Structures are given as C-alpha cells and as structure tokens.
Amino acid sequence: MTEARDDRSLGQLFGDLSRQLTTLVRQEIDLARAETTAKVTSAGRDAAMIGAGGAVAYAGALVLLGAVVLILIRLGLDAWLAAVIVGLIAVVVGAVLIDQGRKRLQQVDVAPTQAIDTAREEAEWAKEQLK
Predict the structure, then answer these.
(1) CA 98, CA 96: separation in Å to the nearest integer?
(2) CA atoms within 13 A on the CB side of 62
(3) Which residues, including other chains, have CB under 8 Å from residue 131's CB and lie 6 or more apart?
(4) Tens place of pLDDT for every residue, the chain, 131 residues?
(5) How far is it, in rounded angstroms, from Cα 24 to Cα 17?
(6) Following DSSP, what letter does each residue of 25-88 receive, concatenated?
(7) Could you tell me which of 34, 41, 40 has the C-alpha nearest to residue 118?
(8) Which of 19, 31, 82, 118 could form a disulfide with 77 if both were Cys (CB 3.0 to 4.6 A apart)?
C-alpha cells in the first residue's frame, strides 16, 4: 500500500482550513436565511387566511346577531335589553377566540433551528480538527 503524501506547508493547510471554514459559515448563513424565510412566509400565509376568514365570519356573525336580537324582541323583550344580552354574549365569545388565537400564535417558532444545530456540530468538528 502506498501512502498519499501531502506536500503543503503548515501555512497552506491553515489557509485552506480558513477558506473552508469561511465557505462553511456562508453556507450556514444561507441555510438559516432560507429556513427563516420559509417559516415566515408560511406564517404570513396562515395569518392572511385567518384575516380573510375572520372578515367573512364577522359579516355573517353580524347578520346572525341582528336576527337573534329581532327574535328576542319578538319574544317580548325590550329592544335595548335584547341588544345588550346579545352584545354581551358576542363579547365573551370574541374574547375566548382572541385568547386562543394569541396562544397559538405564540407557539410559532421562526428561529432557524436546523441551521443552528448544524452550525454547532460544525463548530465542534472544527475544534476537533485544530487539536
């Protein structure tokens, strides 16, 4: 068996290592940027869908709430009392929905976790190579 011999000097080896580490860091930055962009884009689409659905549901809810007020008036309640009852129920339901949406939105993680993990592994590898 023949051994492959590397005739590069120590300075050349360190220069190559430096260039390779620079390339690696750039690639990790690109990966982090791509991962973050994908997550933010997905969250933006989800938020737009929530907004559109909310607008349509809001219009329908107003019509239905008006109908409930009219039904209560027809059942013998004063108009103001029927409106107050329906309004209070709508406020409570709205508060519950807002709280649930806020909690779900807080769970969205836009950090580039894959890129961070890979960068840590590569940093450990680089430290081992310098030993």
Answers:
(1) 6
(2) 5
(3) none
(4) 556 666 778 788 888 888 888 888 888 888 888 888 888 888 888 889 999 998 998 899 899 999 999 999 999 999 999 999 999 999 999 899 999 988 888 887 777 777 788 878 877 877 777 66
(5) 10
(6) HHHHHHHHHHHHHHHHHHHHHHHHHHHHHHHHHHHHHHHHHHHHHHHHHHTT--HHHHHHHHHH
(7) 34
(8) 82
